[in-house]
Structures are given as C-alpha cells and as structure tokens.
Amino acid sequence: MTIEIRDTIRFRLNEREVELADVSPVQTLLDFLRIDRNLRGTKEGCAEGDCGACTVLVGRLNDGRLKYESVNACIRFVASLDGCHVVTVEALAQPDGPLHPVQQAMVDTHASQCGFCTPGFVMSLYGLWMENPKPSVQEIEKALQGNLCRCTGYAAIIRAAEAISSIGELGKDPLVAERERIARQLAALRDGRRVEIGSEKERVVLPGSLDDFAAVLEANPKATIVAGSTDVGLWVTKFMRDIAPVVHLSHLEELRRISVDADGITLAAGVSYTEAYPSIVRRFPQLRELWDRIGGEQVRNMGTIGGNIANGSPIGDTPPALIALGATVTLRKGGERRTVPLESFFIEYGRQDRQPGEFVESVRVPFLSDADRFAVYKISKRLDEDISSVCGAFRVRLDGEGRVADATIAFGGMAGTPKRASNVEAGLKGSVWGETAVNAAVAGFERDFTPLTDWRASADYRMLVAKNLLRRFYLETQETRNVRIDRAVAAAV
Amino acid sequence: MNVMQPIDRIRGGVHERERHESGHKHVSGTAEYIDDIAEPAGTLHAYLGLSERAHAEILSIDFQAVTSSPGVVGILTADDIPGENDISPAHKHDDPVFASGKVEFHGQPIFAVIATSRDAARRACAKVKIGYRDLPHVTDVVEAAAANYPLVIDPLKLERGDIDAGFAKAKNAVQGEMRIGGQDHFYLEGHISFAFPGEDDEVTVIASTQHPSETQHMIAQVLGVPSNAITVNVRRMGGAFGGKETQANLFAAVAALAARKYRRPVKVRPDRDDDMAATGKRHDFHVDYKIGFDDEGRIEAVDAVFAARCGFSADLSGPVTDRALFHADNCYFYPNVRLRSRPLKTNTVSNTAFRGFGGPQGMVGGERMIEDIAYTLGKDPLEIRKLNFYGGGGRNLTPYHQTVDDNIIGRIIEELEASADYAARREAVLAFNHENRVIKRGIALTPVKFGISFTKTEYNQAGALVHVYTDGSIQLNHGGTEMGQGLYTKVAQVVADEFQVDLDRIKVTATSTGKVPNTSATAASSGSDLNGMAAANAAEQIKTRLVRFAAERYGVDEADVAFEPNVVRIGSERIAFADFIKSAYAARIQLSAAGFYKTPKIHWDRSQGRGRPFYYYAYGASCSEVSVDTLTGEYQVERTDLLHDVGKSLNPALDLGQVEGAFVQGMGWLTTEELWWDAKGRLRTHAPSTYKIPLASDRPRVFNVRLAEWSVNREETIRRSKAVGEPPFMLGISVLEAISMAAASVAEYRIPPRIDTPATPERVLMAIERLRGAASRGEADG
C-alpha cells in the first residue's frame, strides 16, 4: 500500500486558514503566535506548561464532534495542529468593539491586576464557559488549576467566572453559533494523507493512520514520538534538545478510542486524561480525585495515558494506580503486538520494556471485583497541579473470614520506577484485615523501598507517609469518619 | 460659552470603586508589555551565560563553539564594560554585571551572547566551556554563621530598657530558634529590558523596573556616561513585588551595553528558570530568641538575633534586615528589649526586596514568641496577644523609640473576633480535636501593624508632571511605576478630584526618567502616598494660576472661583472645563506644572537605633481555620476572615484586591513555597513545576474580606488614605498559626509546636511526630 503524502501543515488560526510548508520540529505554537504572527496577547510565563499565561483554545474534531479545549501554547508544537482550530485572545473582541462576556466579567469584578496572566485566564474561562455555562466554584477551580496568578489571590477571578453567564449568552458566542460551519471547514482540511515536512535533519511526520504510524515508526526507530507534548515540549523549551525526526500522533482518532467490555476498559494510547475522565470515574470512582489532580486542565487536555506510561517517569500520575488495578499494556511494532503487565514495563529508572520501532498502543484496565477494596492517594506539596512526592495505590481483597486473600500495592516516588510494595503485600496476605496486621505489615516498606531525598520531599518523609497511607487505607475501609480532609467542601466567595 | 447645569459629582473621583485603568486591555491582550513591543528591523537579542558553580575561580572560558553558533553576532564579558562593572544599589561595589575571575553563586551571570534571535542567543550560550576551580561554598544561613562568613553590611541593634533586669524579674523564660524560608517573587512577566541606541552616548531603555531612576543611574555607571544620556521608560510591569526594585538593573545594563556596542536595538529576556536562578529573592532568616514573661503571659523581656541569608552581595540586605527588626514587635510592647540583625553573606543569589521587605520575617519571629508563651502556659494565643498589645500608660514605645500614637489594633481585633465568631469556633475546634484522631483542626487570629515610610529618609520624596491641554484633556505623569497595584488609577483619581473632571479626561503616561527625574523606587507601599501627593501638588499649582486668572478676568474674589464637577464656577456663572481652559490658554496662563512632595515628620538615626522612621502605621487582622491530616501533614484552609485598615481608601475595589492578593501570597510564603538548594549550591526549585505558589483551589474555602471602613489616617496623607501594598501580606500568618494549633493538639496544646516555614506537608507531619514523641515522653509540662 502506498500512502499519499502532503508536505504542508494546515490549520485554522482564529478567522483564517493557515498553510505552512516550513515548520521546524521544535517550533512551538507560542513562538509561532508571538514571533511569526505578531499575536502578542498570548504571553510566555514559564515555557513549561505550568503557569497558563500562554493558554489558547484548540478546537479539534473527534468522532465528528468539534470541541474546544484549553492548551498550553508554550509546549504545543505547531506541527501537531494539522486539522485544528487555534483560538487566541485576539479573537474574542475586536479592537474597538465590545468586550466578550468573559472579558467583561473579568473587568467588572476587578479580576486583573498586573494583567500578564489575564489573557490565559480569559481563555481558560472561555473554554470552561463553552462546556459548562453555569459552573460551580469547584468546577471553576478545576478549570483554573493550570493558571497561576500572583496578584489577585484569585477571589476576584472566581467572582468573574460566576458572573459570565449573567453578562452574555452562550448561544451568541461566535464559536458556538458557528460551530457547524467551522466543523465542516476543519473536516475539509482532513484528507487522510500522511504529512511529511522538513529536510532529513528536521523531519516531521504526521502518519495518515494508525497502521501508517506503525510503519513510519518501524522505518524510523529513533524517531521521537510526540503525543500530548506535555513532556517532550520541555525537552525543547528547557533542555533545547534536538528531537528530530518527530512522529506526531495526536491527530489520529484511532489512538483516541475507548472501549469497554464486560471485564475491563481499554484505552488507546493517545486518549487524553480529559477524554478518559468520564469512563474512568464511572468505572473507578476511586480514581476521581487522582484524575482531577493530574497537571492542570491544559495538561489534562493535552497529556495522554500512553505518554504517561511510555515516558517512564519514576513518579507517574497514573502508573501506581494502574499497576494496583492489574493493568496491562499492548505494545506494537509494525504489525506485531505483545501485551505485558504494566508493572513489568518499567524496568529501571530511564529504561522501559520498549524496543526500537515499538510503541505503546493501548492500556487495558480490568474492573475490580465486588470483594476488592481499592484506593489511591497522591501526596504533594501543593494540592493541585503538582507532581507527587509520594503516590500510593492499594487494592486488597478479603476472604469470607475477613482475611486478606490478595493485596496489590504500588507506589510512585519511592523508587526509580513506579513499583509494587511486594514485602508489604506479603505481610498482609493471610492476615486478618485489622490494625494489628497493618502495623506489622508497614515494616515491609523498609525492605521494598529506599526513597531519595529531593526538593519534593525527604526520604524520611516519603517512608513515613508510605506507611501512614496504608494506615489511612485501612481506616477508610472501616468507614471511620474524618480520616481524610474533606476536599469536597464547597468554597464560598 | 456654554453655561453648564451642575451635576452631583464627577465620574471616577477619589474613594470611588474605579476599575483598573488598563483592565479592558489586560483582558483583551492589548496591554503592551515589553516583549509585546514590535521590534524594529535589526533588533538583536541578548542571553546571559550563568555560572554552574556556587563558588569557584574561573580558570578559562572557551567561546569557540558559542561564536560559531548560528546567528551569533558577538559576546559581552566584563572586559567589554566601558564604565564600572558594578550595579550595587548599596554602592558597596560588590555586585558585578558579569563575574570576572571568580563566581560567588550558582547562576551568576558571566557573559552575554548577542544574536539575531533570542533562541539563537540562548542555544549559543549553552555551548560555552568554562574551566572552574571549586572553592568551598556555603548556602545556608546557619552554616554561614558557623563558618564565620562575613556580614554583607553593618548590622543593626535596637535596644530599650534593661533586658537583664527584665529577665531577672520574669517568672518564666523560654528560649528557641526558628527557620523562616525565603520566597521567589514569581512575577508572571519575567525580567526583560529593551534598549535603543540614540545619538552620541544616548541610550533609551524600556525596562521592567520598579525603580527607573536607579536603573538609569546604574546604566550610566556601567556605560561610563552621565545620567543625562540615559532615559528609562516603563509603562507597566507584569508583576514585580519587590523583585524588580534592584534586580532589573542587571538586564537593563546588559541591553544598554549591547545596544551601545552594536548600535542596534537589543532585547534581553531570560527564561523563567534562569530568571529564578539569577535574581534575588526574599531573605531566609534564622531567629534565635529568648523571652521572659509572667504567669499571665505578659512579656517582660525579649532578646533576639535575626540572621539572614543575604547571598553574595549587600544589595538591599541592610534595610531589609533593619525592617525585620522594626517589625519583630508587631503590635506588642516589649518593656525590655534587644534586637540584633546579622546580615550574613552566603554563596547564593543576592537576596533583595520582596513585599514587606524583611517586615514579614520579623513579624513571624515575634508571633513565634507569642505562640511559645501561649503553649508554655497552656493558653489561647489570642489572649497572650491582647495582653501584650501596645496601649496604656508607658506602653507605647517601640524598640526603636518611636511612639505608637495611631493605634487602632484593639478595635480591629474586637470587630474581627466578633465577625469571625472566634470564641465559639475555637471551642468547636477544641471539641472536634477531642473527638477525632486523624484530622485535627486549628484556628488562629493574628494582628498586623506595619510601619509606613522608607526607612532611608531621603527616599521619601516624589515628583509628578501634569499637563492640561487646550481641549481640556489632561496628561498625568509621575515617578511611580505600575506593576498591577493600580497606582496609575489611584493617582489619576486624585488628579480628577483636584480638577473636578471625569476620570476619562485624564491619561496617565509611561513612567519616564525624562519626565520626572530622581524618583524613588515604587516600593515600601509608598506609591500612592508619595506620587498621589506630588500629583495633587502639580494640580494645585495649575489651579492656583487658573483661579487667579478667573478672578482677574471676571472681577470676582478668588474665593468665588471653584472647580465643580466638570465646570468652573466663577461667581454665579458655570463654564465648561474645556472652554475655561481654552480661555486661560488664550490669556497665556501656564497649563503645566511639576509637582513635588516630601513626607514630613520622619527622621532616623541608625547608629543610635532611635528616631521616627515611620510616618504612620497600617493595621489589620486575620482569622484562619485549617484542617490538618496527622497521617500525611496535608492541610486545607477552611475559612479565613480578614479585616484590614487602609485609612480612607482612595479606591476600595483596588484596595480590596491588594488585601486579598497579599493574603494569598503571604499564605503561600508560609506554606507551599519552598526554596531548595542541593549540595552543590544549585537552586532546584527554579520553575513553577518545582516551586509551588498558591492556586485558585488553595484559597480558603470560605474567604471573608473587609476593609475597616471607619478608619481615617490621622496624618495628612493623600485624602487620609493609607498604604496598602505590603501590610496585608502579613495577614497570611494566621494560616501558619492555625496549622500550629492543629499540630499542638496532639500534645494537648502544652508544647510549643515550633513549625519552621514554609510549613509544607512534610514539615507539618514531622512536627506532629516530634510533638507526639515529646508528649508520650511526658514533656508536656512546659
């Protein structure tokens, strides 16, 4: 089969269609907007996807539906935008026209001080408003986890978010009113061709299909695979690494599929955290808090399950929980596939069980049985948009006599990889599930892990918290009150 | 001429809840920051090459790969500096632009690459090969003291009464120590400067600086030209918080140096990580204290040493550590007291101004002493606080011999205690803790008293320039800079009020050393106090001329000429402002004036530790309740109530924003914001991925914020308002104290919890473990 090739990237930028033949593999959307297009309303605050000053919306068709999501332009590569609609703050109001309702709300509530973070907040709130015109305070806070403001203390911004719908009608918003027309235009940009741009040294490839992706990767085993670019983006913006040749996959709908059968859920590797959320929290309500605390909204919109696994972080947002749930990953090279338990995919720090030319195609998470007790706890310096100092996931199955029939416990932040606490598991198995067994089993952590001291936490703290999380897990299975801080308490403004 | 019907009042006068003058531009992305300015053709970009050693001799620098990197135009080192290689604001000659021969901290600039794009300059910088010979280094303040590191500047001692007699009389004495962490400013707009070469020796620099005059002087010093050759402009900063008071000078000097050498516009903007590594922060402190007190908790004597991590140079460490001592008393009378500062050199970036300027660290130290007294005696800390407030016969003298004569803390506390329902909630917290093993709660109500004025008296002056144009529009310029605090809005409100014209008739223009010279930093919360008065003075001068003109022209008494809303009333006739101005112009009346102001009454003798360094005090109080998880140390602020004094507010909406924002920033400083250096002396929390400032979800779950609307400044400040920038920062202390109470609960509130800051979940959990251990060993009897 020969595949047709296109040598340009095509996307829509605000009101105009853009076609680019010359896109460097390391060109970020933020630099493109600010330097190439002189659209300077979008700001650079950190160049690592943590502050949100560069937030723009990216609209993308998935299963025929056009959805706009907030993303960090600083770590998004231009080449990944093929077929997308990029919306920047400049699109919201004409220079001499009235402000957009989101903007007017921000002005009315005195929600800007220095104003540098403000366009990013406006775009995040705009994205939220389109999906949820009357959000709760908690929903607003969640949508703003990826936006830092150093001046206001946020109270006025929350007031603005609550006021938007009293200022403007969602139905009159251009992106809402003209959704179908824009969707048709974006659909017309998609021709199923493989996109290849750049010279040999600066090659960027957007495969035409999943099979094409497998073929391209097999032919270019040293290529950098870019999914959400929440990690690879920093290789470029912070470490100035040369990442060519690059193979993008975020445009492949086949890698964004979620399937559920009687025994479990299968997530294609390119499924973003946001896309996975509804299915995950319906089937695994215990994962809701963890999922809500992965990165910020922009990172959840960009980052993928497959990327989170394939990059082999010793901490990982999802691996400890997925290991405890007994997840498996399917790897593919060309037409060959193999499936391995997730825990064995992580070999040691910086090394995973992935061959050259091979990629993570999907992750399968089996459902819990009724006898399973399961919980995952993320401990971090700041509650939201922080990397875990320790992340512990616990699954225990009791037999009819209250003894531990099976235990799977996995931790991030305690070793060079996400790793099981096998000594603790062994210590629990066969014991009566109770404080005595728990207090005896925690000693196993000392044999399972030798954590490091770094800027996130000391080794002593990590060890103590690991032990205490097992205690917390036990107390929660006893339905004791006030075992954990009630994060669900509604904030009043 | 039109005869106008009188209207009630102008739009946007003083005391109105006026919107930020740039609000509509902030939200639409059209507010122009320096990096948004369209670059002229030929613009070059500079990028700084930083030290990768904490303390080392530079043996060799190999620029070969740098020079051959694409786009590189040239390299600047110390050898390229025509003037002095020094930008020390303390004039200690200890702050080079580029290190030469030796580096003194990890992140110190050594050279700059000039290239055709920022990316090219940055990539080239990374290709340098520098040979170092490592020297021993110290990053920590306690280690610096142990290693006999020098002081970067003369220390200060404040002394009053007789501490030996005080301790002899005191029935109880407690000795302790505390570590107080620093803080990165994390302004969202990082440092940036854009320099444009002019004719002869002229350079114009657009800089993100709080102190355009000093930036101007430093550029002149580095270039070896007189100050009159340099113009520094700044329209707005994307946040500053003290981080751009002196730290902008480096970037401005480098941009100017390159612009002069290459005769092309040059912009310099470091990456966030480099910004955080190469620029100073809030000082970390170590406090050694001893307090004597009676059985009720009344303080008899205080002896404390405040040692600070100053970094490799003096910068502003002198006045910062001074201000720490000035605020170690907070609202409390110390009958016998000795406070000493120890501004220690370390091999870290030179620490600098940051909202509160040492005051917060002093105040946290003072509050730690109160906490120790309370938990030693087993009492509510608020009871100890009230017992020791300034007030009553002979109890109004500060350790620096200034009399507190505007004290309103009693009323503030009383009102907040009632509105926050403190007493009942404290009982509920105690009951909750009795019933729950894992989650513990804490509640604390803490006061703030903050002294207003630069402690260096000469800085307490300001200038303004007001032009009235013939169409009746007004242009306002003053020496203050806009960093988001709303200074431009407030001063424009003052001028609108002076002329009694609607606010939209006034345009505020970018701060420029060419318009108002010899200005002070927009710092010490003084922006509207100083510049508001200077602008009012300029307006008064023009009004005086106009009144004289009107009286002569219309043959009325000067007393019969009045500026009324959008009109001038002359006798019984009312003339539209613009028409009146037109006639004044025709009569050749000067419609422009330079205003000036200097703060009265203040004086300070540092060598004696005596004087009246502060014109007045701003007050406030904060009540916070927290939940703490004793298994993990995680916490959540459940509710905070703030009541803050801004005098008679110039703009209650902007002031409320300052109070809310300052509280959250103060809370962040004391909780999640941690600066962490590794063994090699490298700061590892140098980006938002590792350095955690508060998010929206860190706000207190219930957040009630009020201004003390009844407060009026006793001094004749601008419209009787008070400064607002810094004082509410210290309202964040209530969160720390509430966490302390929750931790103390595991030892029945009988052992001082002594949590160092920032109180990260780790420090909280480790304190809880320590307290549990001490309680089980029976150490709970104080």
From TrEMBL, chain A:
<dbReference type="Pfam" id="PF00941">
    <property type="entry name" value="FAD_binding_5"/>
</dbReference>
<keyword id="KW-0479">Metal-binding</keyword>
<dbReference type="InterPro" id="IPR016208">
    <property type="entry name" value="Ald_Oxase/xanthine_DH-like"/>
</dbReference>
<dbReference type="GO" id="GO:0051537">
    <property type="term" value="F:2 iron, 2 sulfur cluster binding"/>
</dbReference>
<dbReference type="InterPro" id="IPR001041">
    <property type="entry name" value="2Fe-2S_ferredoxin-type"/>
</dbReference>
<dbReference type="InterPro" id="IPR005107">
    <property type="entry name" value="CO_DH_flav_C"/>
</dbReference>
<feature type="domain" description="FAD-binding PCMH-type">
    <location>
        <begin position="197"/>
        <end position="370"/>
    </location>
</feature>
<dbReference type="Pfam" id="PF00111">
    <property type="entry name" value="Fer2"/>
</dbReference>
<protein>
    <submittedName>
        <fullName>FAD-binding molybdopterin dehydrogenase</fullName>
    </submittedName>
</protein>
<dbReference type="InterPro" id="IPR016166">
    <property type="entry name" value="FAD-bd_PCMH"/>
</dbReference>
<keyword id="KW-0285">Flavoprotein</keyword>
<dbReference type="InterPro" id="IPR002888">
    <property type="entry name" value="2Fe-2S-bd"/>
</dbReference>
<dbReference type="InterPro" id="IPR012175">
    <property type="entry name" value="Xanth_DH_ssu_bac"/>
</dbReference>
<dbReference type="InterPro" id="IPR014307">
    <property type="entry name" value="Xanthine_DH_ssu"/>
</dbReference>
<keyword id="KW-0274">FAD</keyword>
<keyword id="KW-0560">Oxidoreductase</keyword>
<dbReference type="InterPro" id="IPR002346">
    <property type="entry name" value="Mopterin_DH_FAD-bd"/>
</dbReference>
<dbReference type="GO" id="GO:0071949">
    <property type="term" value="F:FAD binding"/>
</dbReference>
<dbReference type="Pfam" id="PF01799">
    <property type="entry name" value="Fer2_2"/>
</dbReference>
<dbReference type="InterPro" id="IPR036884">
    <property type="entry name" value="2Fe-2S-bd_dom_sf"/>
</dbReference>
<feature type="domain" description="2Fe-2S ferredoxin-type">
    <location>
        <begin position="7"/>
        <end position="92"/>
    </location>
</feature>
<dbReference type="InterPro" id="IPR036683">
    <property type="entry name" value="CO_DH_flav_C_dom_sf"/>
</dbReference>
UniProtKB/TrEMBL annotation, chain B:
<keyword id="KW-0479">Metal-binding</keyword>
<dbReference type="Pfam" id="PF20256">
    <property type="entry name" value="MoCoBD_2"/>
</dbReference>
<dbReference type="InterPro" id="IPR037165">
    <property type="entry name" value="AldOxase/xan_DH_Mopterin-bd_sf"/>
</dbReference>
<feature type="domain" description="Aldehyde oxidase/xanthine dehydrogenase a/b hammerhead">
    <location>
        <begin position="28"/>
        <end position="136"/>
    </location>
</feature>
<dbReference type="Pfam" id="PF02738">
    <property type="entry name" value="MoCoBD_1"/>
</dbReference>
<dbReference type="InterPro" id="IPR016208">
    <property type="entry name" value="Ald_Oxase/xanthine_DH-like"/>
</dbReference>
<keyword id="KW-0001">2Fe-2S</keyword>
<comment type="similarity">
    <text>Belongs to the xanthine dehydrogenase family.</text>
</comment>
<keyword id="KW-0411">Iron-sulfur</keyword>
<dbReference type="GO" id="GO:0016491">
    <property type="term" value="F:oxidoreductase activity"/>
</dbReference>
<dbReference type="GO" id="GO:0051537">
    <property type="term" value="F:2 iron, 2 sulfur cluster binding"/>
</dbReference>
<keyword id="KW-0500">Molybdenum</keyword>
<dbReference type="GO" id="GO:0030151">
    <property type="term" value="F:molybdenum ion binding"/>
</dbReference>
<dbReference type="Pfam" id="PF01315">
    <property type="entry name" value="Ald_Xan_dh_C"/>
</dbReference>
<dbReference type="InterPro" id="IPR008274">
    <property type="entry name" value="AldOxase/xan_DH_MoCoBD1"/>
</dbReference>
<keyword id="KW-0408">Iron</keyword>
<dbReference type="InterPro" id="IPR046867">
    <property type="entry name" value="AldOxase/xan_DH_MoCoBD2"/>
</dbReference>
<dbReference type="InterPro" id="IPR014309">
    <property type="entry name" value="Xanthine_DH_Mopterin-bd_su"/>
</dbReference>
<dbReference type="GO" id="GO:0005506">
    <property type="term" value="F:iron ion binding"/>
</dbReference>
<dbReference type="InterPro" id="IPR000674">
    <property type="entry name" value="Ald_Oxase/Xan_DH_a/b"/>
</dbReference>
<protein>
    <submittedName>
        <fullName>Aldehyde oxidase</fullName>
    </submittedName>
</protein>
<keyword id="KW-0560">Oxidoreductase</keyword>
